[in-house]
Amino acid sequence: MSGWGVGGLFDGLLDPLSRTFMQHAFVAIVLVGVICGVTGAFVTLRGLAFMGDALAHAIFPGVVIAFVLGANFLVGALIAAVIVSLLIGAIGQSGRLTNDTAIGVLFAGCFALGVALISRQQTYTRDLSSFLFGTILGVSRSDLALTAAVGATVLLVMGLFRRELTMAAFDRVFAQASGRSLFAYDQLFLLLLSLSIVISIQTVGNILVLAMLVTPAATARLLTDRLGVMVALSALIGGVSGVVGLYVSYYQGIASGASVVLTATALFAVAYLFAPRTGVVTTAVARRLHHPFPERDRFPPAHDDGIDPRALPGAVAAPGAIGDDDPTAADSAAPRRRATPA
């Protein structure tokens, strides 16, 4: 029976791989998981999670224009991503507006432009639903080649400028004092983030792309304090979430993008509860083991609670500190006084 169970397990694992569209889907989701995991580590550390979501919507006009022209929508999204990221940096560099304000303006304006363009098409609902929810099961060889090329470029650039990107994320004052151009590296990071978003759209869609950027990185952040380990764990969690999510989607009939994101969210929940050093459950158990009877612990109150420090054990009274209005202190000091002759 056990042998049959093991054989059935292997058959279940290998059956999706016998289909070409699933092979393409697995390769695509692993690429996206690794790329978004690496980029997402810096997104999480810099607190730019919702900027990633805004960028995903701001590239909508490029997708619509590519659809109208009959071109690959990934190419249109790439061009729009480059333009939007450059505009964000230019507006934010003006000094009167921050990058958050710039992305807010461009997000709303670009998305409205995309809606205006698409409303003039008759079949936009059916044809562009893949942009919103992803079509990872429809990935072609050309899509895989484009995803791999863009992903390799993103990882290569991040590897070459890892010191500068790390410095800009952790200590911007020191980076500026050392002569590095923060505007240039911020612009570079926005461009890399935009490219990562574009190649994720076809797998999980525009709506769920934020999860692939943030959730694996947030899970890795709960497990380590070292940047290098965090980046590696984030990439690993992103890839594993994609593979497991595709298997769940294949056998349970769930939408592939939603299944991948739910798997990543489940891993985050496990880390949040059971991380060795920061998990809610593990830290509670550790405290319980260290103090098995917390109700027996008694700590002296702080001095700022109205307690006279002279009343604490071992306190030494200063000369002349005993007053006549303190009968307890007077009684304790009475034996030390000499009797005067009558």
UniProtKB/TrEMBL annotation:
<keyword id="KW-0812">Transmembrane</keyword>
<feature type="transmembrane region" description="Helical">
    <location>
        <begin position="102"/>
        <end position="119"/>
    </location>
</feature>
<dbReference type="GO" id="GO:0010043">
    <property type="term" value="P:response to zinc ion"/>
</dbReference>
<keyword id="KW-0813">Transport</keyword>
<keyword id="KW-0472">Membrane</keyword>
<feature type="transmembrane region" description="Helical">
    <location>
        <begin position="188"/>
        <end position="215"/>
    </location>
</feature>
<feature type="transmembrane region" description="Helical">
    <location>
        <begin position="227"/>
        <end position="248"/>
    </location>
</feature>
<dbReference type="GO" id="GO:0071281">
    <property type="term" value="P:cellular response to iron ion"/>
</dbReference>
<protein>
    <submittedName>
        <fullName>Mn-Zn_transporter_SitD</fullName>
    </submittedName>
</protein>
<keyword id="KW-1133">Transmembrane helix</keyword>
<feature type="region of interest" description="Disordered">
    <location>
        <begin position="294"/>
        <end position="342"/>
    </location>
</feature>
<feature type="transmembrane region" description="Helical">
    <location>
        <begin position="57"/>
        <end position="90"/>
    </location>
</feature>
<feature type="compositionally biased region" description="Basic and acidic residues">
    <location>
        <begin position="294"/>
        <end position="308"/>
    </location>
</feature>
<dbReference type="Pfam" id="PF00950">
    <property type="entry name" value="ABC-3"/>
</dbReference>
<feature type="transmembrane region" description="Helical">
    <location>
        <begin position="20"/>
        <end position="45"/>
    </location>
</feature>
<dbReference type="InterPro" id="IPR001626">
    <property type="entry name" value="ABC_TroCD"/>
</dbReference>
<dbReference type="GO" id="GO:0043190">
    <property type="term" value="C:ATP-binding cassette (ABC) transporter complex"/>
</dbReference>
<dbReference type="GO" id="GO:0055085">
    <property type="term" value="P:transmembrane transport"/>
</dbReference>
<feature type="transmembrane region" description="Helical">
    <location>
        <begin position="254"/>
        <end position="275"/>
    </location>
</feature>
<dbReference type="InterPro" id="IPR037294">
    <property type="entry name" value="ABC_BtuC-like"/>
</dbReference>
<feature type="transmembrane region" description="Helical">
    <location>
        <begin position="131"/>
        <end position="161"/>
    </location>
</feature>
<comment type="similarity">
    <text>Belongs to the ABC-3 integral membrane protein family.</text>
</comment>
